[in-house]
Amino acid sequence: MEIFMSRLHGKHVQCARSRRACARGRLPLFSVSTVELAAAAAHVDRTRCHLAVYHSEPGDCGPCAAPEEADRPSRAQADDSVFDMTKHKPKAESRSDEAEGPDGGWGWVLVGALFVSTSLVFGLMRSLGIFFVEFVQYFEESAQAISWISSTGLAAQQFFSPLGAALCNAYDTRVVVMTGGFLAGLGLILASQATSLVHLYLTMGVVSGLGWGLVFTPMVATVMAHFTRRRTLALGLAFSSIGISSFAFNPLFQLLVEMYAWRGALLILGGLSLNIVPCGALVRLKRRPKAPQKVDSESSSSCAAVLRRVSSYLELPLLFERPYLSYTAAITLLNVGYFVPYFHLVAHSRQVGFSEYQAAFVMSAAGATDILGRIASGWFADLGHFRLIHLLSLWTTLAGVFIMLLPVSSLCGSYAALMVISLLYGFCSGALTSLVFAVVPMIVGVERMMGALGLLQLIESVAGLLGTPLSGLLKDITGNYVASFMVAGSFLILGTLTMATLPHYFSCTEPPAPQRRSHDDKDKSYHSELAQINSSPSDTSHGGAQ
Protein backbone atom coordinates (compact mmCIF):
# COMPACT_ATOMS: atom_id res chain seq x y z
CA MET A 1 0.00 0.00 0.00
CA GLU A 2 1.32 3.41 -0.91
CA ILE A 3 0.38 6.37 1.22
CA PHE A 4 0.41 10.03 0.28
CA MET A 5 0.90 12.24 3.30
CA SER A 6 0.72 16.00 3.53
CA ARG A 7 0.31 18.69 6.17
CA LEU A 8 -3.02 20.49 6.50
CA HIS A 9 -3.02 23.25 9.12
CA GLY A 10 -0.36 21.31 11.02
CA LYS A 11 -2.46 18.08 11.10
CA HIS A 12 -2.07 14.75 9.31
CA VAL A 13 -4.14 13.89 6.24
CA GLN A 14 -3.80 10.37 4.81
CA CYS A 15 -5.00 9.23 1.42
CA ALA A 16 -5.27 5.60 0.39
CA ARG A 17 -4.25 5.02 -3.24
CA SER A 18 -6.76 2.26 -3.81
CA ARG A 19 -9.93 0.64 -2.49
CA ARG A 20 -7.88 -2.51 -1.89
CA ALA A 21 -5.84 -0.72 0.81
CA CYS A 22 -9.01 0.28 2.59
CA ALA A 23 -10.50 -3.21 2.28
CA ARG A 24 -7.55 -4.65 4.18
CA GLY A 25 -8.59 -2.64 7.21
CA ARG A 26 -5.45 -0.61 7.31
CA LEU A 27 -7.22 2.72 6.72
CA PRO A 28 -10.86 3.82 6.87
CA LEU A 29 -12.55 4.59 3.57
CA PHE A 30 -14.43 7.84 3.09
CA SER A 31 -15.81 9.40 -0.05
CA VAL A 32 -15.26 13.08 0.61
CA SER A 33 -16.16 15.87 -1.76
CA THR A 34 -14.13 19.04 -2.13
CA VAL A 35 -16.59 21.05 -0.03
CA GLU A 36 -16.62 18.42 2.71
CA LEU A 37 -12.85 18.31 2.76
CA ALA A 38 -12.72 22.10 3.08
CA ALA A 39 -15.16 21.95 5.99
CA ALA A 40 -13.07 19.29 7.67
CA ALA A 41 -10.00 21.48 7.24
CA ALA A 42 -11.74 24.36 9.02
CA HIS A 43 -12.36 22.21 12.11
CA VAL A 44 -9.15 20.18 12.04
CA ASP A 45 -7.70 22.09 15.01
CA ARG A 46 -10.55 20.74 17.15
CA THR A 47 -11.00 17.31 15.64
CA ARG A 48 -8.21 14.98 14.62
CA CYS A 49 -9.31 13.00 11.58
CA HIS A 50 -7.59 10.52 9.33
CA LEU A 51 -9.14 10.74 5.89
CA ALA A 52 -8.82 8.20 3.14
CA VAL A 53 -9.89 9.88 -0.08
CA TYR A 54 -11.07 7.65 -2.90
CA HIS A 55 -12.17 8.87 -6.31
CA SER A 56 -15.31 7.25 -7.69
CA GLU A 57 -13.74 6.37 -11.07
CA PRO A 58 -11.78 3.11 -11.17
CA GLY A 59 -8.02 3.47 -11.42
CA ASP A 60 -8.14 7.18 -10.63
CA CYS A 61 -7.01 8.17 -7.17
CA GLY A 62 -7.26 11.91 -7.66
CA PRO A 63 -4.43 13.90 -6.22
CA CYS A 64 -2.92 10.81 -4.63
CA ALA A 65 -2.00 9.48 -8.04
CA ALA A 66 0.37 12.37 -8.73
CA PRO A 67 3.98 11.28 -8.89
CA GLU A 68 6.22 12.25 -6.02
CA GLU A 69 8.01 15.56 -6.51
CA ALA A 70 11.28 16.78 -5.07
CA ASP A 71 9.56 19.72 -3.33
CA ARG A 72 6.65 19.62 -0.93
CA PRO A 73 4.01 22.38 -1.37
CA SER A 74 4.04 25.26 1.05
CA ARG A 75 1.22 25.74 3.57
CA ALA A 76 -0.41 28.42 1.44
CA GLN A 77 -0.31 26.15 -1.57
CA ALA A 78 -1.72 23.29 0.49
CA ASP A 79 -4.63 25.45 1.62
CA ASP A 80 -5.39 26.48 -1.95
CA SER A 81 -5.21 22.90 -3.12
CA VAL A 82 -7.99 21.99 -0.70
CA PHE A 83 -10.44 23.90 -2.86
CA ASP A 84 -8.98 22.88 -6.21
CA MET A 85 -7.14 19.62 -5.77
CA THR A 86 -6.71 18.97 -9.49
CA LYS A 87 -5.19 22.35 -10.26
CA HIS A 88 -2.13 22.14 -8.03
CA LYS A 89 1.04 20.54 -9.38
CA PRO A 90 4.25 20.96 -7.39
CA LYS A 91 7.09 22.30 -9.47
CA ALA A 92 10.33 20.42 -9.74
CA GLU A 93 13.16 21.82 -7.67
CA SER A 94 15.46 24.07 -9.66
CA ARG A 95 19.12 24.69 -9.02
CA SER A 96 18.48 28.30 -8.14
CA ASP A 97 15.98 27.26 -5.48
CA GLU A 98 18.44 24.72 -4.13
CA ALA A 99 21.17 27.25 -3.61
CA GLU A 100 19.08 30.30 -2.79
CA GLY A 101 20.82 32.84 -0.58
CA PRO A 102 20.45 36.52 0.31
CA ASP A 103 23.03 37.64 -2.32
CA GLY A 104 24.51 40.46 -0.32
CA GLY A 105 23.78 42.35 2.86
CA TRP A 106 26.02 41.18 5.66
CA GLY A 107 27.56 38.80 3.14
CA TRP A 108 29.67 41.64 1.74
CA VAL A 109 31.10 42.26 5.22
CA LEU A 110 31.98 38.57 5.35
CA VAL A 111 33.64 38.90 1.93
CA GLY A 112 35.88 41.55 3.49
CA ALA A 113 36.63 39.26 6.44
CA LEU A 114 37.48 36.41 4.06
CA PHE A 115 39.63 38.84 2.04
CA VAL A 116 41.81 39.57 5.08
CA SER A 117 41.90 36.04 6.47
CA THR A 118 42.86 34.39 3.17
CA SER A 119 45.66 36.91 2.67
CA LEU A 120 47.00 35.89 6.07
CA VAL A 121 46.64 32.18 5.27
CA PHE A 122 47.42 31.44 1.62
CA GLY A 123 48.98 34.79 0.82
CA LEU A 124 51.45 34.23 3.63
CA MET A 125 51.90 30.57 2.68
CA ARG A 126 52.71 31.52 -0.91
CA SER A 127 55.37 33.97 0.22
CA LEU A 128 57.26 31.52 2.43
CA GLY A 129 59.60 30.90 -0.51
CA ILE A 130 61.53 33.97 0.71
CA PHE A 131 62.43 32.00 3.86
CA PHE A 132 63.34 28.89 1.84
CA VAL A 133 66.80 30.16 0.90
CA GLU A 134 67.40 31.47 4.43
CA PHE A 135 66.53 28.12 6.00
CA VAL A 136 68.82 26.24 3.59
CA GLN A 137 71.74 28.49 4.50
CA TYR A 138 71.08 28.55 8.26
CA PHE A 139 70.31 24.87 8.89
CA GLU A 140 72.56 23.57 6.06
CA GLU A 141 69.99 21.01 4.99
CA SER A 142 68.86 19.75 1.58
CA ALA A 143 66.10 21.38 -0.45
CA GLN A 144 63.91 18.35 0.15
CA ALA A 145 64.23 18.62 3.94
CA ILE A 146 63.43 22.34 3.90
CA SER A 147 60.46 21.74 1.59
CA TRP A 148 58.80 19.65 4.30
CA ILE A 149 58.25 22.84 6.35
CA SER A 150 55.85 24.39 3.85
CA SER A 151 54.38 21.01 2.92
CA THR A 152 53.63 20.20 6.54
CA GLY A 153 51.84 23.53 6.98
CA LEU A 154 49.81 23.10 3.81
CA ALA A 155 48.97 19.48 4.60
CA ALA A 156 47.99 20.36 8.18
CA GLN A 157 45.72 23.14 6.93
CA GLN A 158 43.94 20.75 4.62
CA PHE A 159 44.01 17.78 7.02
CA PHE A 160 42.36 19.73 9.84
CA SER A 161 39.74 21.36 7.59
CA PRO A 162 37.17 18.58 8.30
CA LEU A 163 37.73 19.23 12.00
CA GLY A 164 36.95 22.90 11.45
CA ALA A 165 33.84 22.03 9.44
CA ALA A 166 32.64 19.53 12.06
CA LEU A 167 33.18 22.00 14.90
CA CYS A 168 31.24 24.66 12.98
CA ASN A 169 28.37 22.21 12.39
CA ALA A 170 28.31 21.32 16.09
CA TYR A 171 29.16 24.64 17.73
CA ASP A 172 29.62 28.34 16.93
CA THR A 173 31.46 29.22 13.71
CA ARG A 174 32.67 32.50 15.18
CA VAL A 175 34.52 30.81 18.06
CA VAL A 176 36.10 28.23 15.74
CA VAL A 177 37.50 30.87 13.36
CA MET A 178 38.80 33.07 16.17
CA THR A 179 40.54 30.09 17.77
CA GLY A 180 42.12 29.23 14.44
CA GLY A 181 43.44 32.77 14.04
CA PHE A 182 45.06 32.61 17.46
CA LEU A 183 46.75 29.27 16.69
CA ALA A 184 48.00 30.54 13.31
CA GLY A 185 49.74 33.49 14.95
CA LEU A 186 51.02 31.39 17.85
CA GLY A 187 52.71 28.89 15.53
CA LEU A 188 54.67 31.58 13.68
CA ILE A 189 55.70 33.27 16.93
CA LEU A 190 57.01 29.97 18.29
CA ALA A 191 58.76 29.26 14.96
CA SER A 192 60.84 32.40 15.42
CA GLN A 193 62.57 30.64 18.35
CA ALA A 194 63.24 27.36 16.50
CA THR A 195 66.68 25.77 16.77
CA SER A 196 66.11 22.81 14.43
CA LEU A 197 63.97 21.76 11.50
CA VAL A 198 61.84 19.61 13.80
CA HIS A 199 60.81 22.74 15.67
CA LEU A 200 59.79 24.37 12.39
CA TYR A 201 57.83 21.26 11.38
CA LEU A 202 55.87 21.41 14.64
CA THR A 203 55.34 25.18 14.85
CA MET A 204 54.99 26.49 11.29
CA GLY A 205 53.71 23.12 10.14
CA VAL A 206 51.38 21.60 12.73
CA VAL A 207 50.35 24.50 15.01
CA SER A 208 49.92 27.17 12.33
CA GLY A 209 48.49 24.56 9.93
CA LEU A 210 45.86 23.61 12.50
CA GLY A 211 44.92 27.27 12.88
CA TRP A 212 44.70 27.75 9.11
CA GLY A 213 42.46 24.68 8.87
CA LEU A 214 40.06 26.10 11.46
CA VAL A 215 39.90 29.41 9.57
CA PHE A 216 39.78 28.80 5.84
CA THR A 217 37.00 26.25 5.26
CA PRO A 218 34.48 27.80 7.71
CA MET A 219 35.07 31.28 6.27
CA VAL A 220 34.64 30.09 2.68
CA ALA A 221 31.45 28.15 3.51
CA THR A 222 30.09 31.18 5.38
CA VAL A 223 30.54 33.47 2.38
CA MET A 224 29.11 30.90 -0.06
CA ALA A 225 26.01 30.51 2.12
CA HIS A 226 25.30 34.25 1.80
CA PHE A 227 25.35 34.36 -2.01
CA THR A 228 23.64 32.63 -4.93
CA ARG A 229 23.85 34.43 -8.27
CA ARG A 230 26.98 36.35 -7.29
CA ARG A 231 28.65 33.49 -5.44
CA THR A 232 31.60 33.05 -7.82
CA LEU A 233 32.19 36.80 -8.02
CA ALA A 234 32.11 37.07 -4.22
CA LEU A 235 34.66 34.28 -3.93
CA GLY A 236 36.78 35.86 -6.65
CA LEU A 237 36.83 39.19 -4.84
CA ALA A 238 37.66 37.55 -1.52
CA PHE A 239 40.36 35.31 -3.00
CA SER A 240 41.91 38.24 -4.85
CA SER A 241 43.54 39.03 -1.52
CA ILE A 242 45.84 36.07 -2.10
CA GLY A 243 47.19 37.71 -5.24
CA ILE A 244 47.39 41.13 -3.60
CA SER A 245 49.21 39.73 -0.59
CA SER A 246 51.55 37.74 -2.84
CA PHE A 247 52.34 40.96 -4.70
CA ALA A 248 53.00 42.84 -1.45
CA PHE A 249 54.38 40.15 0.84
CA ASN A 250 57.33 38.96 -1.26
CA PRO A 251 59.21 42.31 -1.27
CA LEU A 252 58.03 42.99 2.29
CA PHE A 253 59.29 39.66 3.61
CA GLN A 254 62.59 40.12 1.79
CA LEU A 255 62.95 43.52 3.46
CA LEU A 256 62.05 42.10 6.89
CA VAL A 257 64.59 39.29 6.51
CA GLU A 258 67.32 41.78 5.61
CA MET A 259 66.44 44.09 8.52
CA TYR A 260 65.58 41.62 11.31
CA ALA A 261 66.85 38.24 9.98
CA TRP A 262 64.45 35.35 9.56
CA ARG A 263 63.67 35.08 13.29
CA GLY A 264 62.52 38.67 13.60
CA ALA A 265 60.57 38.41 10.36
CA LEU A 266 58.66 35.34 11.61
CA LEU A 267 57.89 37.11 14.89
CA ILE A 268 56.37 40.03 12.98
CA LEU A 269 54.37 37.65 10.77
CA GLY A 270 53.00 35.93 13.87
CA GLY A 271 51.66 39.22 15.17
CA LEU A 272 50.24 40.01 11.73
CA SER A 273 48.42 36.66 11.64
CA LEU A 274 46.59 37.46 14.87
CA ASN A 275 44.46 39.87 12.82
CA ILE A 276 42.45 36.81 11.76
CA VAL A 277 40.84 36.85 15.22
CA PRO A 278 38.78 40.04 14.65
CA CYS A 279 37.86 38.74 11.19
CA GLY A 280 36.32 35.69 12.84
CA ALA A 281 34.35 37.93 15.19
CA LEU A 282 32.37 39.20 12.17
CA VAL A 283 30.92 35.76 11.38
CA ARG A 284 27.20 35.49 12.12
CA LEU A 285 26.33 32.26 10.31
CA LYS A 286 23.60 30.29 12.06
CA ARG A 287 24.29 26.75 13.08
CA ARG A 288 22.87 23.97 10.95
CA PRO A 289 19.45 22.84 12.21
CA LYS A 290 19.44 19.51 13.95
CA ALA A 291 18.01 16.54 12.11
CA PRO A 292 14.57 15.45 13.40
CA GLN A 293 14.65 12.70 16.01
CA LYS A 294 13.05 9.38 15.25
CA VAL A 295 9.90 8.50 17.16
CA ASP A 296 11.46 5.30 18.50
CA SER A 297 15.03 6.60 18.69
CA GLU A 298 17.64 5.00 20.85
CA SER A 299 19.27 6.67 23.81
CA SER A 300 21.38 9.65 22.78
CA SER A 301 24.31 8.27 24.75
CA SER A 302 24.50 5.05 22.74
CA CYS A 303 27.48 4.35 20.53
CA ALA A 304 25.32 4.23 17.40
CA ALA A 305 23.86 7.65 18.15
CA VAL A 306 27.32 9.14 18.65
CA LEU A 307 28.57 7.65 15.38
CA ARG A 308 25.53 8.99 13.51
CA ARG A 309 26.10 12.43 14.97
CA VAL A 310 29.79 12.46 14.04
CA SER A 311 28.99 11.18 10.54
CA SER A 312 26.40 13.94 10.16
CA TYR A 313 28.86 16.65 11.20
CA LEU A 314 31.60 15.37 8.88
CA GLU A 315 29.25 14.49 5.98
CA LEU A 316 30.93 11.08 5.65
CA PRO A 317 28.23 9.67 3.29
CA LEU A 318 29.74 11.89 0.58
CA LEU A 319 32.66 9.47 0.40
CA PHE A 320 30.31 6.92 -1.18
CA GLU A 321 29.01 9.24 -3.92
CA ARG A 322 30.78 8.87 -7.27
CA PRO A 323 30.52 12.51 -8.48
CA TYR A 324 32.06 13.83 -5.28
CA LEU A 325 34.84 11.23 -5.33
CA SER A 326 35.69 11.98 -8.98
CA TYR A 327 35.83 15.70 -8.34
CA THR A 328 37.92 15.24 -5.20
CA ALA A 329 40.40 13.05 -7.08
CA ALA A 330 40.74 15.72 -9.79
CA ILE A 331 41.36 18.52 -7.29
CA THR A 332 43.85 16.35 -5.40
CA LEU A 333 45.92 15.80 -8.54
CA LEU A 334 45.71 19.52 -9.30
CA ASN A 335 46.92 20.31 -5.80
CA VAL A 336 50.12 18.26 -6.21
CA GLY A 337 51.60 20.76 -8.63
CA TYR A 338 49.66 23.95 -7.91
CA PHE A 339 51.87 25.29 -5.10
CA VAL A 340 55.25 24.27 -6.55
CA PRO A 341 55.95 27.63 -8.30
CA TYR A 342 55.10 29.58 -5.16
CA PHE A 343 57.67 27.66 -3.11
CA HIS A 344 60.42 27.12 -5.70
CA LEU A 345 60.16 29.81 -8.38
CA VAL A 346 62.14 32.33 -6.31
CA ALA A 347 64.92 29.81 -5.66
CA HIS A 348 64.90 28.79 -9.33
CA SER A 349 65.16 32.41 -10.49
CA ARG A 350 68.13 33.02 -8.21
CA GLN A 351 69.76 29.80 -9.38
CA VAL A 352 69.69 30.87 -13.04
CA GLY A 353 71.40 34.16 -12.20
CA PHE A 354 68.77 36.78 -11.35
CA SER A 355 69.15 38.98 -8.27
CA GLU A 356 67.22 38.53 -5.04
CA TYR A 357 64.85 41.39 -5.77
CA GLN A 358 64.39 40.32 -9.39
CA ALA A 359 63.44 36.85 -8.19
CA ALA A 360 61.04 38.26 -5.60
CA PHE A 361 59.47 40.58 -8.18
CA VAL A 362 58.70 37.60 -10.45
CA MET A 363 56.36 36.24 -7.78
CA SER A 364 54.96 39.71 -7.14
CA ALA A 365 54.12 40.09 -10.83
CA ALA A 366 52.42 36.70 -10.84
CA GLY A 367 50.47 37.80 -7.78
CA ALA A 368 49.28 40.94 -9.58
CA THR A 369 47.80 39.01 -12.49
CA ASP A 370 46.48 36.48 -9.99
CA ILE A 371 44.24 39.26 -8.68
CA LEU A 372 42.89 40.02 -12.14
CA GLY A 373 42.35 36.33 -12.83
CA ARG A 374 40.25 35.78 -9.72
CA ILE A 375 37.99 38.78 -10.27
CA ALA A 376 37.64 38.33 -14.04
CA SER A 377 36.97 34.61 -13.69
CA GLY A 378 34.31 35.16 -11.03
CA TRP A 379 32.57 37.87 -13.05
CA PHE A 380 32.60 35.84 -16.27
CA ALA A 381 31.44 32.63 -14.57
CA ASP A 382 28.43 34.39 -13.03
CA LEU A 383 27.28 35.46 -16.50
CA GLY A 384 26.20 31.86 -17.02
CA HIS A 385 27.41 31.44 -20.60
CA PHE A 386 29.42 28.31 -19.76
CA ARG A 387 29.27 25.64 -17.09
CA LEU A 388 31.57 26.18 -14.13
CA ILE A 389 33.21 22.77 -14.51
CA HIS A 390 34.15 23.56 -18.11
CA LEU A 391 35.69 26.90 -17.15
CA LEU A 392 37.60 25.20 -14.34
CA SER A 393 38.97 22.64 -16.79
CA LEU A 394 40.10 25.41 -19.16
CA TRP A 395 41.99 27.40 -16.54
CA THR A 396 43.53 24.28 -14.99
CA THR A 397 44.91 23.12 -18.34
CA LEU A 398 46.37 26.54 -19.15
CA ALA A 399 47.93 26.84 -15.69
CA GLY A 400 49.59 23.44 -16.12
CA VAL A 401 51.01 24.42 -19.50
CA PHE A 402 52.45 27.70 -18.19
CA ILE A 403 54.05 25.94 -15.19
CA MET A 404 55.87 23.67 -17.62
CA LEU A 405 57.05 26.73 -19.58
CA LEU A 406 58.48 28.56 -16.53
CA PRO A 407 61.92 26.85 -16.55
CA VAL A 408 62.13 27.00 -20.35
CA SER A 409 61.70 30.77 -20.33
CA SER A 410 64.26 31.29 -17.56
CA LEU A 411 66.93 28.97 -18.97
CA CYS A 412 67.20 31.13 -22.07
CA GLY A 413 68.52 33.91 -19.83
CA SER A 414 65.74 36.36 -20.68
CA TYR A 415 64.19 38.00 -17.64
CA ALA A 416 61.42 39.42 -19.84
CA ALA A 417 60.43 35.95 -21.06
CA LEU A 418 60.29 34.65 -17.49
CA MET A 419 58.18 37.64 -16.49
CA VAL A 420 55.66 37.10 -19.33
CA ILE A 421 55.18 33.41 -18.51
CA SER A 422 54.87 34.27 -14.81
CA LEU A 423 52.16 36.82 -15.60
CA LEU A 424 50.19 34.30 -17.66
CA TYR A 425 50.60 31.60 -15.02
CA GLY A 426 49.46 33.99 -12.30
CA PHE A 427 46.28 34.88 -14.21
CA CYS A 428 45.32 31.24 -14.85
CA SER A 429 46.15 30.06 -11.34
CA GLY A 430 44.01 32.84 -9.90
CA ALA A 431 41.15 32.19 -12.32
CA LEU A 432 40.76 28.55 -11.29
CA THR A 433 40.85 29.09 -7.52
CA SER A 434 37.34 30.45 -6.91
CA LEU A 435 35.87 27.93 -9.37
CA VAL A 436 37.29 25.01 -7.36
CA PHE A 437 35.02 25.97 -4.46
CA ALA A 438 32.08 27.26 -6.53
CA VAL A 439 31.65 23.86 -8.21
CA VAL A 440 31.23 22.02 -4.87
CA PRO A 441 27.59 23.08 -4.17
CA MET A 442 26.74 22.12 -7.76
CA ILE A 443 27.79 18.56 -6.93
CA VAL A 444 26.62 18.07 -3.33
CA GLY A 445 24.12 20.89 -2.73
CA VAL A 446 24.32 23.86 -0.38
CA GLU A 447 23.07 21.91 2.64
CA ARG A 448 26.18 19.69 2.69
CA MET A 449 28.65 22.32 1.53
CA MET A 450 30.48 22.84 4.83
CA GLY A 451 31.28 19.16 5.31
CA ALA A 452 32.05 18.68 1.61
CA LEU A 453 34.65 21.44 1.67
CA GLY A 454 36.21 19.96 4.80
CA LEU A 455 36.50 16.47 3.32
CA LEU A 456 37.86 17.92 0.08
CA GLN A 457 40.59 19.72 1.99
CA LEU A 458 41.35 16.56 3.98
CA ILE A 459 41.91 14.43 0.89
CA GLU A 460 43.88 17.26 -0.72
CA SER A 461 46.27 17.19 2.23
CA VAL A 462 47.94 14.10 0.78
CA ALA A 463 48.82 16.08 -2.34
CA GLY A 464 49.90 19.10 -0.32
CA LEU A 465 52.15 16.89 1.79
CA LEU A 466 53.88 15.31 -1.21
CA GLY A 467 53.89 18.08 -3.84
CA THR A 468 56.74 20.37 -2.80
CA PRO A 469 58.95 17.62 -1.27
CA LEU A 470 58.68 15.75 -4.58
CA SER A 471 59.75 18.93 -6.34
CA GLY A 472 62.66 19.34 -3.93
CA LEU A 473 63.68 15.72 -4.42
CA LEU A 474 63.76 16.15 -8.20
CA LYS A 475 65.91 19.25 -7.74
CA ASP A 476 68.36 17.34 -5.53
CA ILE A 477 68.58 14.55 -8.13
CA THR A 478 68.88 16.69 -11.26
CA GLY A 479 70.60 19.76 -9.80
CA ASN A 480 67.97 22.21 -11.13
CA TYR A 481 64.22 22.83 -11.05
CA VAL A 482 63.40 21.97 -14.67
CA ALA A 483 62.08 18.49 -13.90
CA SER A 484 60.25 19.85 -10.84
CA PHE A 485 58.19 22.31 -12.90
CA MET A 486 57.57 19.80 -15.69
CA VAL A 487 56.16 17.21 -13.29
CA ALA A 488 54.12 19.85 -11.45
CA GLY A 489 52.48 21.06 -14.67
CA SER A 490 51.69 17.51 -15.75
CA PHE A 491 49.77 16.91 -12.52
CA LEU A 492 47.47 19.85 -13.29
CA ILE A 493 46.76 18.49 -16.76
CA LEU A 494 46.10 15.05 -15.29
CA GLY A 495 43.61 16.64 -12.90
CA THR A 496 41.77 18.15 -15.87
CA LEU A 497 41.49 14.73 -17.50
CA THR A 498 40.07 13.32 -14.27
CA MET A 499 37.35 15.99 -14.25
CA ALA A 500 36.16 14.62 -17.58
CA THR A 501 35.00 11.47 -15.76
CA LEU A 502 32.31 13.41 -13.88
CA PRO A 503 28.70 12.49 -14.79
CA HIS A 504 27.19 14.87 -17.37
CA TYR A 505 30.62 16.47 -17.92
CA PHE A 506 30.13 16.80 -21.68
CA SER A 507 26.63 18.23 -21.34
CA CYS A 508 26.22 21.92 -22.10
CA THR A 509 23.58 22.33 -19.39
CA GLU A 510 23.82 21.80 -15.66
CA PRO A 511 22.57 18.39 -14.41
CA PRO A 512 19.60 18.22 -12.01
CA ALA A 513 20.25 19.77 -8.64
CA PRO A 514 21.08 17.47 -5.73
CA GLN A 515 18.03 16.88 -3.53
CA ARG A 516 17.97 18.79 -0.30
CA ARG A 517 18.99 16.74 2.66
CA SER A 518 16.43 18.52 4.81
CA HIS A 519 13.69 17.14 2.59
CA ASP A 520 15.09 13.65 2.96
CA ASP A 521 15.07 14.02 6.73
CA LYS A 522 11.48 15.27 6.65
CA ASP A 523 10.40 12.37 4.48
CA LYS A 524 11.94 9.91 6.93
CA SER A 525 10.18 11.64 9.80
CA TYR A 526 6.86 11.62 7.92
CA HIS A 527 7.10 7.92 7.10
CA SER A 528 8.03 7.14 10.69
CA GLU A 529 5.01 9.04 11.97
CA LEU A 530 2.80 7.41 9.37
CA ALA A 531 3.93 3.93 10.35
CA GLN A 532 3.17 4.68 13.98
CA ILE A 533 -0.30 5.98 13.12
CA ASN A 534 -1.10 2.93 10.99
CA SER A 535 -0.07 0.59 13.81
CA SER A 536 -1.96 2.50 16.52
CA PRO A 537 -5.12 1.02 18.11
CA SER A 538 -7.24 3.92 16.85
CA ASP A 539 -6.72 2.80 13.27
CA THR A 540 -7.78 -0.73 14.13
CA SER A 541 -10.99 0.51 15.67
CA HIS A 542 -11.70 2.59 12.59
CA GLY A 543 -11.14 -0.42 10.42
CA GLY A 544 -13.62 -2.43 12.49
CA ALA A 545 -16.23 0.28 12.13
CA GLN A 546 -16.29 -0.24 8.42
Automatic annotation (TrEMBL):
It is a multi-pass membrane protein. It is found in: Cell membrane; Golgi apparatus membrane. This is Monocarboxylate transporter 13. Residues 69-78, 85-98, 517-527 have a biased composition (Basic and acidic residues). Keywords: Cell membrane, Golgi apparatus, Membrane, Symport, Transmembrane, Transmembrane helix, Transport. It comes from the Eukaryota. Proton-linked monocarboxylate transporter. May catalyze the transport of monocarboxylates across the plasma membrane. It comes from Seriola lalandi dorsalis. One of its GO terms (molecular function) is symporter activity. Residues 65-102, 511-546 are annotated as: Disordered. GO terms for cellular component: Golgi membrane; plasma membrane. Its main location: membrane. Belongs to the major facilitator superfamily. Monocarboxylate porter (TC 2.A.1.13) family. The lineage of its organism: Eukaryota, Metazoa, Chordata, Craniata, Vertebrata. Residues 531-546 have a biased composition (Polar residues). Residues 107-507 form the Major facilitator superfamily (MFS) profile domain. The chain crosses the membrane at residues 105-125, 145-168, 175-194, 200-221, 233-253, 265-285, 324-345, 388-409, 415-440, 452-470, 482-506.
